[in-house]
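Quick one, T. Sequence first:
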Amino acid sequence: MIETLLRYPRAFIFSLVLHVVVIGLTLLEFSDRSVTPVVTKKGPQDQTIQAEVIDQKKLEQREQKIKQQQEAKRKQELEKKRLEQAAKKRAQELKKKKEQEAKRKAEARKKAEAEKKRKAEAARKKAEAEKQRKAEAARKKAEAEQKRKAEEAKLKAEAEQKRKAEEARIKAEAERKRKEEEPRRKAEEEARLAAEAEQRRKEAELKARLAAEERQRELDNMRQRYYSLIREKISRNWRQPVNAGNMPECEVRVVQGPGGVMLDVILGQCPGTREYRLSVEAAVLKSDPLPQPEDPELFERDLRILFKP
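Structure tokens:
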């Protein structure tokens, strides 16, 4: 209230004067009522008082409005200030949070680098310790190997010395016995060699006989296959005549040259019709050249072939 009076002093003085005048006029009116009759008609003075009261109300309303505007402005400024302070506080908090986050990251990086260095140092120490351990193990192994080889060489030398001594003893004993048994041994050796020679001769004869028999069986089998091939080829080339009649087995003699080329064909014993004999001879001639044997040893210039359809 005092702040408002100090802000508007003229209005305060005017209001004070107006209140004094109103009080004085009121007292004067009461005094006049006791002496003179009441005058109902308002004079100029009453109008002035009423005007002053109305102006006072307008002034108070204006003052109240001004107060409301000032209060609204003050509240707006306070709200603005509060918002600015809140924004500033948020900015400070955000800045602080960012600084804390940056500090945390820096500390984390520092901690990670320290951990990395620690691990690197630990790995280096471990590698160094492992290297030393391996070197020590290698040294001990080399020493043990050297000691083992020395012991082995010593034992080997002793064993070699004993072996040579025993060998010399055995050799001397054998030589003595050999000289004592030389005549008997020589006779036994000659007999053994003769028996072995006889055994080898018999084995060679048996082996040769078996090989010859095996070769003969092989040649016989190949000869049978050879003659079978010739008969099969003649059979493929034979065509049964119309008036064949009875078709018995026919003997055919073939003279061939190298490569199975036929030089001559002679029909031997072949009881049957003339057409049948001619068909057999034609089949043999159409089979030129004859199949070759598996082994050149089986080649025969003169072949005797028995053919039966």
